[in-house]
Specification:
The complex is a heterotrimer. Chain B is of the alpha/beta class. Helix content of chain B is 39%, strand content 13%. Chain B has a domain at 3-245: Amidase signature (AS) enzymes, CATH 3.90.1300.10. Chain B has helices at 3-11, 17-35, 43-58, 100-107, 150-157, 174-180, 214-224, 267-282, 298-313, 331-342, 345-358, 364-387, 410-415, 421-426, 455-468; strands at residues 38-41, 69-73, 111-116, 163-167, 183-186, 207-211, 254-258, 286-290, 390-394, 429-437, 443-450. In chain C, 38% of the residues lie in helices and 19% in strands. In chain C, helix 7 (334-342) packs across helix 9, helix 12 (418-431) crosses helix 15 (464-474) and helix 14 (445-457) crosses helix 15. The N and C termini of chain C lie far apart (57 Å). Classes of the chains: A mainly alpha, B alpha/beta, C alpha+beta. The B-C interface holds B 75-77, 83, 85, 90, 93, 95-97, 99, 194-199, 201-203, 229-233, 308-309, 311-312, 315-316, 318, 320-322, 331-332, 335, 355, 358-360, 363, 367 and C 43, 46-55, 81, 83, 85, 87, 90-93, 145, 147, 273, 275-277, 280-283. Strand 3 (88-92) of chain A pairs antiparallel with strand 9 of chain C.
Chain lengths: 99, 471, 477
Amino acid sequence: MAGLSREEVAKVARLARIALDDAELERFTDQLAQVLEHAADLEALDLAGVAPTAHPHGLANVLRDDEVRESLPRAEVLAQAPDVAEERFAVPRIIGEAP
Amino acid sequence: MNAIKVAGSVGSGATSAVEVVAESLERIAARNEELNVFVHLDPEGALAAAARVDERVAAGERLPLAGVPVALKDNLCVRGQPTTAGSRILAGWRPPYDATVVARLAVAGAVALGKANMDEFAMGSSTETSAYGPTRNPLDPTRVPGGSSGGSAAAVAAGMAPIALGSDTGGSIRQPAALCGLVGVKPTYGLVSRYGLIAFASSLDQIGPFAATVAEAALVLEVIAGHDPLDTTSLAEPAPELSTHLDDGVAGRRVGLCRELVEGADPEVVAAVARAAEALARAGATIEEVSIPELKLGLSAYYLIAPAEASSNLARYDGVRYGLRVEGPDVEAMNVATRTVGFGDEVKRRVMLGTYALSAGYYDAYYGQALKVRTRMIEAFARAYARVDTLLGATAPSVAFALGAKTQDPLAMYLSDVFTIPTNLAGEAALSVPFGTGEAGLPIGVQLLGPARSEAGLLAAARVLEAEEGR
Amino acid sequence: MSLPEGWEMVVGLEVHTELLTRTKLFCGCANAFGAEPNTQTCPVCLGLPGSLPVLNRRAVELAMAIGLALHATVSPSTFHRKNYFYPDMPKDFQISQYDRPINAGGYLDLPDGSRVGVERAHLEEDTGKSTHLGGTGRIHGAERSLVDYNRSGVPLVEIVSAPDIRSAAQARAYAAELRGILIASGASDGRMEEGSMRIDANVSVHRVGEPFGTRCEMKNLNSLRSLQRAIDYEAERQYALVASGGVVRQETRHWDEDRGVTSTMRSKEEADDYRYFQEPDLVDLAPEAAWVETVRAGLGPMPAERRARLAALLEDPTEAQLDAVGTVVDLGVDGFVEAAVAAGVEADRAIARAANELAGEAHERPGLSEQSFAATLRLEQSGDLSATQAKTVLSTLALAGGDPATVARELGFERMASGELEGLLERLVGEHPDEWRRYDEGDDKLAQFFTGQVMRATRGQADGKAVLEVLRARRGR
């Protein structure tokens, strides 16, 4: 694991939709690099053939029946919204379509 | 104020829930400004709820937590009450629903006082990352109460409420319990429903109780545990019986004094753990020294897995549907402005770390590798539990530290979770129980760990240590 | 349209279909099209903090039904999060399936005999819907957008074909056949106009024998016709680009139906780092064999089998008759044809009437049963009703229901006695002597004229065949 670069941190910040000024970029790069350096002990391990664990317990097939439950009152839903128009959540213009 | 005594007294009609809650509110009024324990209080609501409990008692209902005031960590949703997870980005948000644990406490007759301070999105070990200012340790206000559930711990330690709920992702119940001289339980993953708990790291998060005594913690856990169809990861079994096993003792129990769970701790902490082992031995347990080298990898794995999940869990705070919005010329700019202003540094650090660990080209080296370490950790625990029933170690490396001591050094802060993290990675059970004091008379917590569903045995062992201390 | 000799296009289709469940994929909100905005939402499908998904059993069954109908293997699967920011996606990640889909490795045989591989058919959740204010109402140039989350969390199955398709017509045939299968399996209503079936097309061109070219993904293909036109346009665009020394860039392109062109929507860039990881809030899905077999056993016959069954009723069928068979199967009204044939109606008549008179949705004809359809066609076959009368009876039954003979009587559709018809024609011949002379001299086109006159006079109640018979009988008298 090579050292973390400022460019990589800047890219990650863009992906996470967080803006960083130059000083923050510098500071976060140092701090994240430290944490990743600590994580270098993982890289040294030979874990080929070890199955990953995404869940602590191996549960499977937990399902619910296809039965309608009451939805929330719309007024309550929209009351929390920063901006509403025509009973919908309003946002500034969207640049670019969904992938 | 002891929850069991309160419930008995209110349940028998000797006192009213309204009187009990009023007393709690007085204690809060006396010290909340100094300690910053509650970020949101609803005195009228609490008194009204208490009055309803009194009516239910009068109508003959038997309520296990009749009139017991409870502090709720601010990441538990309460319908209509501000719920911020300690973050500016959720300022003003009022959930339209109750967390399952909140509903279960209410059914049992407990009365929620308000929302207790916490590290922002539970990311921290000192309650200093809260957007609403740090909470101070009631035992020494120059020190931290631990975190991330520091407000919940402080509420109980300051006598504001006999019980509190917190959440534990890497030690966030056990570590503040240790630093505030309380019992804190991290239940088996899936024992308590996460529905309505604002997620930090979904595969690690678990809700659990704080209380001054083992018996109170056991009672609360019995009330909140048990299968919930709204949480797919909830274990499909009823709540375990805990209170009836409190005095089971540890005779014949094999206890492993785990080297990796004391290594690097302050000498006074190491000594307290050794004395705990002796106390358990006197009560009939056999003590064995064990070593589980894999536990040392826990910290690194945790600081990849938890941020990775968090980076995704926290994406929804985008200014569109609820909470903070900082306007921008287009939706992406609005998202960025909202998140930049709404998140504190620690959250930004972890979100970026997690985004990095999951991103193309790094997934295998970081996140993928961490998941495999998690497998190793589970296997290593399983081998240990084939030899011993319970593991014993420290909860935190030191007693409560001074405010500001670690805020400039994230890695040092992360290291204070080193003993608690492995249990979360394995999805197993552990608790912290006060045992002895250290520097400046501050409490030390020792940690008891067991396999999944071992809560009854851990609580019984904790009861032995508690009795040894004369509680 | 075609590419020059030696060149070919390579097409793969990604088809998203909404599932016909009562509720959404991960919550109990109703899955219904057309409700008032934001009235079918809850903490889960709004992605509120603290909410957790719980998987819908029926959605899993319908996904398996699709897989089995496409000859795919149902396997243990997991859910992943696909992370990207978009305002119509309340969690800013989509719960989907990634490296372990529920169905993999199937195929679809087309009516022309070709086979298209199906790589996978996986479960995922739908997004909300944005509308755009200001500008043209399209996303570009809009001042702001409004989001309705009713659709958020509606169950989808994405069916990904192998890049086996080599023409726009074949792509269209694949989509049409797949639509039939989705409807036949009970998983989808297949309504492209309501967006319950949506198609994206990956198109590339290459010289035969050389590696595949760089592909572009077409979006906004809202009908089978758009699909075919867009693919043809895009293949020609790419060929022209490559032939003039240019390079195709991998990108997503938007089909403009009005202008008949595709244009760049977004290029594949950094934003495509979706950071997939396993959804920690959901556990594995591992349908046991017995469950899979129950779903398989519940599957009715698929369109190909049904077409063959209907075609077998016809002797030496014509193209037009086979088209009608296809329509009957598309409409899902095979049962009407079979009931009519069982009641003694000629297959040709039953298929033609079903194809033409039973278009539209079943709920639009609540009063028409297979039995009353069959009985009406019997009345037509016996000559008690003319073709026009039979159609009127069918449309009346559709709305009001009832017994066909009674309905016919109430409509005044008495069988016209041949004497009555002859009397009417006598009068018409008198009124139109020139026309009659020309017919009488052998101009058969005038038969149509007199039939028309009879129909007008009887308000369509006469039997066209009987009119022709009477006309022929008068000839040369």
